[in-house]
Amino acid sequence: MELLKDRKDIVLPYYNYEEGTIPAFYRFITKLPGYNINRVIEAMKNRGIICGRGVLQPLHRLLRLNYINYLNSERLSKEVILLPLYPSLDIGEVDYLVECLLETLERIG
Fold first, then answer.
1. How far apart are the C-alpha atoms of 38 and 73, rounded to whole Å?
2. Residues facing 80 on adjacent strands
3. Within the chain, how many helices (H) and strands (E) appear?
4. Tell me: the pLDDT tens digits for 68-106?
């Protein structure tokens, strides 16, 4: 996801692994503050890319707790998207994923 690192409107995760660790992701968690995540997910689906929501429903809602005590959870549930990422993706597919995401963000801005 090197292609996204300089975007001010996209917040990428930071990982600090021990030396020799090789992570294996199946989703790439990305924060898109200022965008409607549902619209982004739908637009990506229309391009053949299935993305997910970071959280379907924050835990405090399921427990019927007052949201005022969980404002960060509320905000993140509306900002986080899961981009598909797995070992068998080739560089062309990653490039297509990034291209589609950037075009989608430009279009729905």
1. 17
2. 31
3. 4, 3
4. 888 888 888 889 999 998 888 899 999 999 999 999 999
Does the predicted model carry a pTM greater than 0.85?
Answer: no
Contact of 84 with 25, CB cutoff 8 Å: no
Q: For the chain, give the number of residues.
A: 109
Contact call for residues 80 and 54 (beta carbons, < 8 A): yes
Q: Which two tokens stand for residue 76?
A: 């993140």
Nearest CA to 35 out of 43, 46, 47, 26 is that of 43
Cβ atoms of 33 and 42 within 8 Å: the answer is no
Q: Which two tokens stand for residue 106?
A: 């430009």
Q: Which domains does the chain have, with CATH numbers?
A: 2-15+23-108 (3.90.1150.10)
Residue/partner pairs of 16-24 with CB below 8 Å, 24 or more apart: 24/87
